[in-house]
TrEMBL record:
Localization terms from the record: Apical cell membrane; Cell junction, Tight junction; Cell membrane
Name used for this protein in its record: Immunoglobulin superfamily member 5
Cited function: Provides, together with MAGI1, an adhesion machinery at tight junctions, which may regulate the permeability of kidney glomerulus and small intestinal epithelial cells. Mediates calcium-independent homophilic cell adhesion. In testis, it may function as a cell adhesion molecule rather than a tight-junction protein. It may participate in the adhesion between spermatogonia-spermatogonia, spermatogonia-Sertoli cells, and Sertoli cells-Sertoli cells.
Alphabetical UniProt keywords: Cell junction, Cell membrane, Disulfide bond, Glycoprotein, Immunoglobulin domain, Membrane, Repeat, Tight junction, Transmembrane, Transmembrane helix
GO biological process terms on file: cell-cell adhesion
PROSITE patterns in UniProt: IG_LIKE
SUPFAM superfamilies: Immunoglobulin
Lineage: Eukaryota, Metazoa, Chordata, Craniata, Vertebrata
One Gene Ontology cellular component: cell surface
Family per record: Belongs to the immunoglobulin superfamily.
Ranges where the record places region Disordered: 273-312
Quaternary assembly: Interacts with MAGI1 at tight junctions, forms a tripartite complex with NPHS1. Interacts with LNX1 isoform 2 via its PDZ 2 domain, it may also interact with other isoforms containing this domain.
Domain Ig-like, residue spans: 15-115
Length: 344
């Protein structure tokens, strides 16, 4: 019996937990990590959450029972560090976390706290107040677990400022903070919520438009700008209309001038037609014309021969084209009593 007890005691002392996990505060939906430092020679490490084993580790591989619980391992100073990671932390995960070894009466434990980041708001948003007149700004933290610490950052020139925060009497997960200040210009005030045990800040920044004359000036400026735009649109429309009228009048004048010119050309053509063919006589018999033309052409043959020998005696100007020469001769031969025009 004494030998058995000695052997059992030797087996239990082969590996031990040197340092257990520490308390962790995590936000809902985030990750929580727990570390356990163990001496060499261990065979099986077990992690339990609220009394239920959720993760086991052997020297070769981890035994994972849920995707929400994974492991990591490190070596430090000859010791083994086992880490359990809880993913997507929920409020129901809050409780005791325990690290233990197989065949060991020692374990390490810690506590998981889960907090919920609620809403942080300033009712009314932008504020319009009177300069140098005291006013209050309210900030509300709604649906937080646990309640955050509320504070203010003042970016407004003030002559006095103070604030206080209290839990909502009818809602244990909400709180309210009231800032009292006397503003002396424009600026911004910021409500800050800091969660206990976490390096997490939530900020709400309302734009405090101070004082009222700034709002009035902005409204007047926008009105003047709108009026200016309307005036410019009216001027543009008038210019376009005037340009279209001028173009229409100009086109009318062009059409009128073209009509007058066409009429004058028609009248001139008629007058020219009336002045031509002076030798035409409608009462002469048609049978006598061929003989007369034959006689004229025979007599006209003599001047043509002489003119070819003495061109200056025929009364022609130098450079006169043959076409016009023939035409002149033809027109002269039609007139009665003017057959001998080309003779010397």
């Amino acid at each position: 019996m004494g030998l058995f007890s000695s052997l059992e005691k030797t087996c239990l002392s082969d590996s031990e937990i040197i340092e257990g996990p520490k308390n962790v505060t995590a936000l809902k939906g985030s990750e929580a990590r727990f570390n356990c430092t163990i001496s060499q020679g261990w065979k099986l490490i077990m992690w339990a959450l609220k009394g239920t084993v959720v993760l086991s580790m052997t020297p070769s591989e981890p035994i994972i029972t849920s995707d929400r619980f994974t492991s990591a391992s490190y070596q430090e100073g000859g010791n083994f560090i086992s880490e359990m990671i809880i993913h997507d932390v929920q409020l129901s995960d809050a409780g005791q976390v325990k690290c233990s070894l197989q065949n060991s009466d020692r374990d390490g434990s810690a506590f998981l706290s889960v907090q919920v980041m609620g809403q942080l708001l300033i009712p009314g948003g932008s504020l319009v107040v009177i300069e140098d007149k005291p006013c209050n700004v309210t900030c509300r933290a709604l649906n937080w677990t646990t309640l955050p610490d509320l504070s203010w950052e003042i970016g407004v020139p003030v002559s006095h400022s103070s604030y206080y925060s209290v839990p909502e009497p009818e809602d244990l997960q909400s709180a309210v903070s009231i800032l009292a200040l006397t503003p002396q210009g424009n600026g911004t005030v910021t409500c800050v919520a800091e969660m206990k045990g976490l390096d997490v800040h939530s900020i709400d920044k309302p734009g405090a438009s101070l004082p009222t004359w700034a709002i009035v000036l902005l409204a007047v400026s926008l009105s003047l700008l709108l009026i200016l735009i309307i005036v410019l649109i009216i001027i543009f429309c008038c210019c376009v209309s005037r340009t279209e009228k001028e173009e229409s009048s100009y086109q009318s004048e062009i059409r009128k001038s073209a009509t007058v010119k066409t009429s004058k050309d028609t009248v001139g053509t008629k007058l020219k037609s009336a002045n031509e063919n002076y030798g035409y006589r409608s009462d002469e018999p048609r049978t006598t014309q061929p003989a007369s033309l034959h006689a004229m052409s025979s007599e006209a043959g003599v001047p043509e021969q002489r003119s070819s020998r003495q061109p200056h005696q025929a009364g022609l100007l130098p450079g006169l084209q043959p076409f016009w020469l023939a035409h002149d001769l033809f027109a002269s031969s039609l007139g009665p009593g003017r057959v001998n025009v080309g003779q010397v």
